[in-house]
Amino acid sequence: MKNKTFGSTLIVAGTTIGGGMLAMPLTSAGIGFGFTMVLLVGLWLLLCFSALLFVELYQTVDSDAGIGTLAEKYYGTFGRVVSTAVLIIFLYAILSAYVSGGSSLLAAFLPTISDAETTTRIAGVLFTLLFGVFVIVGTTSVDAVNRLLFTSKILAFLLVLVLLLPKVSVENLLEMPIDNALLISASPIFFTAFGFHGSIPSLNKYLDGNVKALRISILVGTAIPLVAYILWQLATHGVLSQTEFLQILEKDPTLNGLAEAAAQITGSSIIGAVVRIFSALALITSFLGVALGLLEALDDLLKRVNIQANRATLGAMTFIPPMLFAFFYPQGFIAALGYAGQMFAFYAIVLPIAMVWKLRSQYPTLAYRVKGGKASLLTALVIGVFIVIVPFLIEQGLLPKVVG
User: Fold this and answer.
1) Does residue 288 sit in helix, strand or coil?
2) What's the CA gap between 326 and 122, in Å, rounded?
3) Dihedral through CA 138, CA 140, CA 145, CA 150, nearest 10?
4) In this predicted model, which residue has the larger pLDDT, 369 or 325?
5) Which of 47, 112, 155, 325 has its CA 20 to 30 A from that of 386?
6) Nearest CA-CA partner of 128 in 291, 296, 297
7) Contact 229, 40 (CB under 8 A)
8) Residue 173 or 251, more confident
9) Residue 403 has pLDDT above 70, yes or no
10) By the 8 A CB rule, do 185 and 401 touch?
11) pLDDT tens digit string along 183-240?
């Protein structure tokens, strides 16, 4: 079990350190380093709290139960339908963002085929097929490849820091936000930076319902990304000024554009290459965890309506829609993450709070209960609902659009 706990911790960390992290420098361009830190720590506390609520919930069901099964237990068929729909839409949106981001990065390594657009589309197909097979095989396969990739990612990340941190400018770090309200506008996108919750059912099943092991995996697995995010923001905000950020977004608002900017501003082609490698590894590990969660969610849905599907069929249902999104919308990385953040706020905050509220009245003597009582549940609920409506406030012009 200790070995599985370690593997599960790395899956949490690997899923988390991915697309959301890579989008941070692009979406926080107008916020500044200090305010970005406030947003990061606040969202980490919120999402770690909500993840532990799922641990509390899983004490009352079988270890292989999906989120839809949990919701049905407390809110009947309506709960299952709503929770399953939101979860699947969220996972499809974020997986589409990862395939889109992966296409952009992989295309930079491929020779140009016909034209740049065609090359990017082929890169998206190759990216999905190459890494989707591990998800189709199963969680054990994902665990094994994730350990290798996660280790490589950490080494690449450390190399990025070694190359970038000496070039950090204190003046850049002290820059104030262009607009303080951008802190709120960026929250749905930053929200996904700690988004591994869709993988919790797979992890709980993998750990055979061991509450302690799942709790450790969540606490340690999210602490690792928090430290990494702070260092990543320190490096990128310190090297690139807000003006340079804005120029990047005008030219190429993709991960490849960020890598090019790091190379140009620092005058080092090595930095650009290492940033690309790190970005690719971060996307792949995140892709694996999210895809695994989506496949399990689809499996849970089909079983509920008495449809038996093999892993190959589930794999096709999991990967074809995101691949088509990347095919027809190759620069949709930021847009997909923003939409995913909106769905994720409901799934990761509103839903577990609603279920735990009923759980505690029905099971007042459970062995494990998240601290904070009703006050913490209500506070988290208000924040979660507000993040859900942020995109609507932006559309109405009540909040500024996130730069990029």
Assistant:
1) helix
2) 10
3) 120
4) 369
5) 325
6) 291
7) yes
8) 173
9) no
10) yes
11) 888 887 787 778 788 788 888 888 988 989 999 999 999 999 899 888 888 887 887 7
2-395 under CATH 1.20.1740.10, yes or no = yes
Going by C-alpha positions, the residue among 149, 19, 225, 357 that lies closest to residue 217 is 225
Q: Is 45 helix (H, G, I), strand (E, B) or coil?
A: helix
Each domain of the chain, given as residue ranges in start order, spans 2-395
For the beta carbon of residue 208, count every other beta carbon within 10 angstroms: 12
Q: Which two tokens stand for residue 298?
A: 């689809």
Give DSSP secondary structure letters for 136-176. Answer: HH-HHHHHHHHHHHHHHHHHHHHHHHHHHGGG--HHHHTPP
Q: What is the pLDDT of residues 31-57, one digit of tens each?
A: 878 888 888 999 999 999 999 999 999
Q: What is the pLDDT of residue 216?
A: 93
Determine the length of the chain: 404
CA 311 – CA 313 distance, rounded (Å): 5
| H-type alpha helices, 165-210 | 170-173, 182-185, 187-191, 200-206
258 Cβ partners below 8 Å, 6+ apart? 22, 25, 26, 236, 248, 275, 279
Contact 106, 131 (CB under 8 A): no
Residue 398: count of CB within 10 angstroms of its CB: 13
Extract the tokens encoding 66. 């999906």
